[in-house]
Amino acid sequence: MSCGYWFTMIIFFVNKYLSFKTIACDIICRLFKEGIMSQSFNRKMQTLKSIGFNTNKKGVKQIHSELVGEGFNIDIRTLQRDINSLSKSFDIDNDGNKDQPGWFWKKNADTLSFPGMQPSVAVTFKLVEAYLKQTFPPETLKNLKRYFVEADSYLQNNPSNKLANWENKVSIVSRSQPFINPVVNEDILITVYESLLEEKQIIAHYNSKDGGPSNYDINPLGIVIVDGVIYLLCTLWNYTDIRQLALHRFVTADKSKVDAIPSQHFNLKEYSNKGGFLFPLEEEEELIKLVLLVPDWVADHLEERALSEDQIITEHENNTNRKFKVTATVLNTAQLRWWISHYHALVEVLEPQSLREQFKKQAKALHNLYS
Fold first, then answer.
1. Which end of the chain, N or C, is less surrounded by CB atoms within 10 Å?
2. Alpha helical stretches, state H, the chain
3. What is the tens place of the pLDDT at every residue in 358-370?
4. Does domain 287-370 have CATH number 3.90.1570?
5. Does CATH number 2.40.50 belong to domain 186-273?
C-alpha cells in the first residue's frame, strides 16, 4: 500500500481517538512498532479483529480459518508468530493451554476500533453496488457512496488477497429476453422512497397504461423490482385493493403531509409468494393440479428445478417422445401459460381440462395465422 494510504489512516486514528481517549499516541506507536509499512500489517490488523474477548476465547486454528475466509494466504506457523508478536504490543493473552491455547483480549484492555474494511465487507459493498442499487432509497445510496469508494480502494490496494478479484469470479445473469429498462425520474424516485419510508401519502400524476394520465392519492405499501422494472405496491384514496404502479409511468410525485392509510392485511412477502407479479387469473381457481407430458430433457430440468413441493415425475408409455408425466400443484397464472407456450409442441397439457382447451384454441389460432 502507498505511504499516502497509511498516512491517511494514521490521521484517522489521531482525529478519532484524540477526541475521546488519551491513548491515541500510544496506539499509533504500537502500530508503528508492529511494522505499519510492511506487507503483513493488514493481515495483523485482521488478526487482532478476529481475537475474541475473555468470554470468547479463540484457538489459532479458528483464527486461521477466519483469516483464510477473508482471503489471506497464511499458514498456521506464521499466524502463531504473528499472535506472539502482537501479544507483546497489545493487551491480548492466552489461557495457558499448551496444546491449543485460546487467545483473547484481556478483561481491562483498552477498546480499539480499527479503521478500514475487512476483505469480505469490501466485496459485499462491490456486489451491492453492482446488483442491489435499485433496492436502496436514493438518499441511503448517497450515504453508501463513500463505502463503495473505500471498497474500491481497499481491493485495488490488496491485489494479493484472494477476495480482491471476487467480483470478477461471480456474475448474475438472466436467460429471459434482454430489454432496455425504462428510466425513472430521479426526483420521483426519491419522493416515492421517502414517502414509503415515512409512511406518507403521495400526490401523483400517473400515466396509466389503459386509462391515460390521472391524479392519484397513493398510500405506498412496498417496492418490488421485476426484471429491472420498479413497481410501487399501494392502495389509492380510501380503497383497499392492492395496485401495482410502475415508477417510470409517474409524471409527477409529491410527498404529502398526510399519513398513508395502512393496509391491515397486506404482507409484501406473502403477496409475492402468492404470485402477485405472475399475473394471477381473476375469477379462477388460485391453485390448479397441473399434469404435463414432457420429453426426457424437460423432465431432467424439472428434476433440478421443481414446479412445486409436491411435484411427481413418472415414466409414461406412449408413441411420442414425451416419455414422462409431470404432476404438480401450481399457481394459476398467465406466467404459467407463457412458460408452457415456450415449449411449443414439445410439452402436452393433460390437466386441468380448461387449460388444455385454452392451448387447443391457441394452437388453432397459430395455425390460422401462419397457414
1. C
2. 3-18, 24-33, 41-50, 60-69, 76-86, 119-131, 138-157, 186-198, 268-273, 296-304, 334-341, 353-370
3. 999 999 999 999 9
4. no
5. no
